[in-house]
Amino acid sequence: MAILLVDELTKRYRNGTLANDNLSLAVEPGEVYALLGPNGAGKTTLVRQVLGLLKPTSGRIHVDGVDVVADPKYARRAIGFLPQAQFAMEAIQVGELVYGIARLRGLDAGEARRRTDELLDELDLGPFRGTQLRSASGGIRRLAAFATAVVGHARFLVLDEPTNDVDPVRRQLLWSRLAAFRREGTTVLLVTHNLAEAERVIDRFAIIDHGRILREGTPAALRSLVTDRLRLEVTTTEAFGGAHPALQPDPATPGAYLFDHSDLAAVSAWVQAAHESGELVDFRIGPPTLDDIYTVTVGDPRREAVGAAK
Amino acid sequence: MSFFAQYGILTRMRFQMMRNEMMIFGIIQVALSVGLVLGLGYIVPDVSDTTALFLTTGTATQAIVTIGLVATPQILAMEKQEGRLEYMLTLPISREAYILAQITYVAAMALPGVVIAVALGAWHYGFGLDVSPLVLLVIPLAILSLAGVGIAMATLSPHQQLTNALTQLIIFYVLFFAPVIAPKEQLPEVLQRVSVVMPPTYAADAIRASLTGLPGTHLARSLIVMAGFAAASTALASLSLRRRG
């Protein structure tokens, strides 16, 4: 039985915005399932409905087979949640917060203390135990939020952008913690933009836009979608006169382009000429990254500004 | 986990969250009380014993109003704006325990102002207090009814700005246009009528009755109305916290 079953879910806000459009997905036990999509694609709306903060317009959501639209309390008990919003919990200290949430999730005092110590240690948060959340950096807040999500031993975690603002070293820590949870059989619904880093812990992912799932599959299966593409990254000078027409710009990375294998000869010639004429100081051609799948599937994420949901 | 265990943990976390403001809050509350009790005496030329009693007990009520109907909704509105409230609502906790923890914090902030207003007024204007043991019921109920309404206001209000604007109005209303510092008979009739549906009216009356035994107060009626406001506003607040858009 799926841990999370979303069936023909539609959410239309009162202002008319269609945030989820007949969306269906199933997250199996022990799976790390990632949701990917531009801002306003409907990811957070989906998460808020799973947690019972929003009521679907139509459709079903089951957690462990329990209808959580009818029984949102079940979802709150079952799910460890890390919100996307900045975790500014005023003047409470990192250690106090993790301990407090542990108690609220039902751990007794001794167990909550032990678990807090353990988590602060694992996430390298020890030096920040006494730091007030309001004066902590964005990365430390995110890690503290992560600790509160996992402190209650929930078997199902919903993590909305866990690595935002986190420094590279602690980001690695976070991913390895996630990998460990996965080995222990914890199920994770992960909302992330950081596909390249998330790839090694993800079992499956779905690309969402305009409230619908555009593609779903394993990272390997999705990678095969772009095997006929190549990626060009260039560093340009002021003399740069514009890219070759076969190059499709990657909106997420300035100076990065995707192009078809069949255009390789034309692009190579253009790069060589541009390099010799001093328009490019540096260039690199390689296979596409996982992020490119996203770019190819969703198209130009800049259009999110037009179609952004609430 | 029991309701009371949750309430205890949420209350402690609330104090931990607000630890930086507590000192300033407390000082401002005391300063407001001292200022009102003494300052209003300067405005009124000859302060009779009755006037002194009204000034003093009215200021005590004002201290609870400031925290309950002004600071509480402002804190909650900010919490809503920053998404912190929504996060707390994703935890497996009782909504009522969450509200009660907030009111407890508010009560602790309001109490020094209340005590100092009463003590200073009695000493400065030289009147005797006639404290009824019922004050132990009156003060918590006054806090509960005012903060309850404040919380309901904040949870129902669509914007932080609206909440903050409303709280500014409340301060003015209670200071000048409500039977809190001034006796009801001194207000124009329309304000007397309005005061019937305003919670500070009953908090002021009950506090006056239980501290001074002043004639013309209606302790039993005020207690019942306050209990009604407390119950209705808490129910409204928890209903609105349960509401899913």
The largest interface is: A-B, 33 and 25 residues
How helix-rich are the residues of chain A, as a percent range? Answer: 25-40%
The residue fraction in helices of chain B comes out at over 70%
Inertia-based shape of chain B:
globular
Order of helices and strands of chain B: HHHHHHHHHH
Number of beta-strand segments of chain A: 14
Count, helices of chain B? 10
Give the strand content of chain B: under 5%
Low-confidence stretches of chain A: 301-310
As laid out across the biggest beta sheet of chain A, the strand order is: 6-7-8-3-9-10
What would you call the quaternary organization? Answer: heterodimer
Sum up the overall morphology of chain A in one term.
globular
Radius of gyration of chain B: 18 Å
Number of helices of chain A: 11
What tags apply to this protein structure?
heterodimer, A: 310 residues, alpha/beta, Rossmann fold, 4-stranded antiparallel β-sheet, disordered C terminus, B: 245 residues, mainly alpha, 10 helices
Write up this protein:
The complex is a heterodimer of chains A (310) and B (245). With 310 residues, chain A is α/β, with parallel strands linked by helices. Chain A folds into 2 domains: 4-218, P-loop containing nucleotide triphosphate hydrolases (Rossmann fold, 3-Layer(aba) Sandwich); 228-287, no CATH class. Chain A is built from 11 helices and 14 strands. In chain A, the strands form 3 sheets. In chain A, strands 6-7-8-3-9-10 form a 6-stranded mixed beta sheet, sandwiched between helices. With 245 residues, chain B is mainly α. Chain B is built from 10 helices and no strands. Chain B starts with a helix and ends with a helix. The relative contact order of chain B is 0.15. Chains A and B meet through α2 and α3 of A and α1, α2 and α4 of B.
